[in-house]
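Supplementary Text 2. Reproducibility record for the structural model of the 274-residue chain.

All settings were left at their defaults, and a single model was retained for analysis rather than an ensemble. We include the record here because the model underlies the residue-level annotations in Supplementary Table 4.
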Amino acid sequence: MELTQYIEGYNPVLLKNALFCYRNKVEMINFPIPDDIRIIDIKTDIRSLFKLEKMLNKPFDKITLKDILLCPCIVKTTMVIKNIYFRYFNMDLVNEIYYWSNRSALEIMNKFKCTEVKANSLAKFNFDNSKYLNRYDPEKPTIYVSKNNVDTRPHLSLDFSIGCIKILGTSDDPIKDLELFYAKNKVRFTAPTIKKIKKAIKRKRFYKDYIDKINSFMRTRKITYGKNKYSFTSAGDDFIYMYYPLRLAYRDDIPGRKWDKELGVVKVNDKWKI
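Retained model, structure tokens:
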């Protein structure tokens, strides 16, 4: 199998600049990003390589398979092979993983003097090149649940948020049902997300009445919950899944969707409740 190193549209200079900004804590607000670049995955890859650098005490472009196999901690091989930075700037490591994943555990142990557990794990590893290609597919939709300036398909994030709000308002087991809903939509269900959901569960009545809450916001420019009043920004931050519905009602800038005072979010030219 011929391994893919470079992906069309992803310039090495752009990747190095993004890495520099993250490494040196430089704001990326005005960072020039082409429309078809998946900056969210670039950021994820940067965080992953930082974690591995810290674990191995070595620059990511100098890391070898031996470093990984002899590390006392667990290093997920999949994380390396689907990371664009390892593909672009440490392809030797990717090639090493591919070569030795097609060898026996005994050969791996003899070569690297690693544990049997790690040798077996590598020998059984299924090197799937598509995991890298699919991550950076420009047609792959990305769904967000909070404000994100690089969201090029906000209608998908909006529809997902509405689905989550409905689950929060009606489900007897919202965490379980939301986990299934996330999986169905191929959205990561993380520990921080669960923490926010647990907070939202305590506000179940708010989510059941979200249409009235947003209509009230349109009149007063404030969201009221208990004794507190929230602005557009603070409500979007404090109430998970509320940013996109509020944005639609307030800004009316999400193509294909409109805010209806009775129905909530509706598709343009198709008046049915989502």
